[in-house]
């Protein structure tokens, strides 16, 4: 595969010039790509063109925590893959200042998508790139990975105020591009046996998901606003929708039995 091949296939799958896209990717899934991760990044930028914007997660949730509470936007490495780490080092890339769930972005909408992320007490709050992507009608690309890595589903869980999502507060700290340090009170997400890929049929029926292949990689292209429209009403009916089916009833019963609130959150 070449850079040109990847860009061509992305356009075939519905990526359009001028769009904002959030990309989750596994480089190894492609097979051989001439130029490696840099070629994949270039292909993404080619696909959206000079008026489009590419975002990638540059998360640090496994390395920034109560014991190691400092996130430095310039130095803290991304923990979610080689493509994201190379992306954030590009001279034209910006990175949001959230201490655990930052995003990197290149393009004319980068600053607007990333600004004030660190003001959110939760990782995927109202001013996060994840909710802004849905508001702006962007797309989420899954290149060689499944919806299991779909951070935007955490944004929907936050929007729906599901009862299981948050842990206690932690005081974390961000160092910005100028070297200024600021405190960022943060509520971490509660882990658990989610089944995000199990929602694919819902998204397909809603016309919000397109599947294809690029090289050896399975690819999914999700319309972010369509995803929100399809999933939010279902979360209102069943706040445990995104959990595995075999544990939904267990968590629902446990939640309902907590007369003073779900202490297990």
Question: Which key features would you list for this structure?
Answer:
265 residues; alpha/beta; seven-stranded mixed β-sheet; three-stranded mixed β-sheet; 9 helices; globular
Structure description:
With 265 residues, the chain is of the alpha/beta class. The chain has one domain (3-257). Helix content is 32%, strand content 22%. The chain is built from 9 helices and 10 strands. The chain has helices at residues 3-12, 36-48, 82-88, 110-114, 129-136, 151-160, 200-205, 224-237, 245-257; strands at 20-25, 53-57, 70-72, 94-95, 103-106, 139-143, 166-175, 181-189, 209-214, 217-223. A 7-stranded mixed β-sheet has the order 4-5-2-1-6-10-9. A 3-stranded mixed β-sheet has the order 3-7-8, with no helix packed on it. α2 (36-48) crosses α3 (82-88), α5 (129-136) packs across α8 and α6 crosses α8. The longest helix is centred in the last third of the chain and has 14 residues, at 224-237. It is globular and about 55 Å long. It starts with a helix and ends in an 8-residue tail after the last helix.
Any chance you could write out the topology, listing elements then pairs?
Layout: H1 3-12, E1 20-25, H2 36-48, E2 53-57, E3 70-72, H3 82-88, E4 94-95, E5 103-106, H4 110-114, H5 129-136, E6 139-143, H6 151-160, E7 166-175, E8 181-189, H7 200-205, E9 209-214, E10 217-223, H8 224-237, H9 245-257
Parallel strand pairs: 1-2, 1-6, 3-7
Antiparallel strand pairs: 2-5, 4-5, 6-10, 7-8, 9-10
Helix pairs in contact: 1-2, 2-3, 5-8, 6-8
């Amino acid at each position: 595969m070449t850079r040109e091949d990847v860009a061509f296939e992305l356009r075939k799958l519905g990526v359009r010039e001028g769009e904002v896209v959030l990309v989750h990717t596994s480089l190894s899934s492609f097979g051989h790509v001439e130029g490696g991760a840099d070629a994949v990044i270039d292909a993404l930028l080619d696909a959206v063109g000079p008026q489009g914007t590419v975002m990638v997660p540059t998360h640090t949730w496994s390395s920034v925590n109560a014991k190691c509470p400092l996130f430095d936007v310039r130095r803290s490495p991304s923990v979610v893959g080689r493509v994201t780490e190379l992306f954030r080092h590009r001279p034209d890339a910006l990175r949001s200042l959230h201490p655990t769930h930052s995003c990197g972005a290149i393009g004319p909408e980068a600053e607007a998508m990333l600004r004030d992320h660190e003001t959110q007490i939760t990782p995927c709050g109202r001013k996060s790139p994840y909710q802004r992507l849905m508001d702006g009608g962007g797309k989420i690309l899954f290149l060689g990975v499944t919806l299991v890595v779909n951070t935007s589903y955490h944004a929907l869980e936050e929007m729906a105020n599901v009862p299981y999502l948050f842990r206690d507060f932690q005081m974390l700290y961000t160092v910005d591009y100028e070297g200024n340090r600021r405190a960022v009170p943060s509520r971490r997400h509660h882990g658990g046996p989610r089944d995000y890929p199990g929602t694919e049929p819902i998204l397909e029926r809603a016309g919000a998901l397109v599947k294809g292949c690029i090289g050896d990689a399975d690819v999914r292209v999700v319309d972010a606003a369509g995803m929100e429209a399809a999933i939010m009403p279902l979360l209102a009916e069943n706040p445990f929708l995104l959990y595995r089916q075999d544990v939904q009833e267990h968590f629902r019963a446990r939640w309902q039995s907590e007369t003073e609130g779900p202490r297990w959150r």
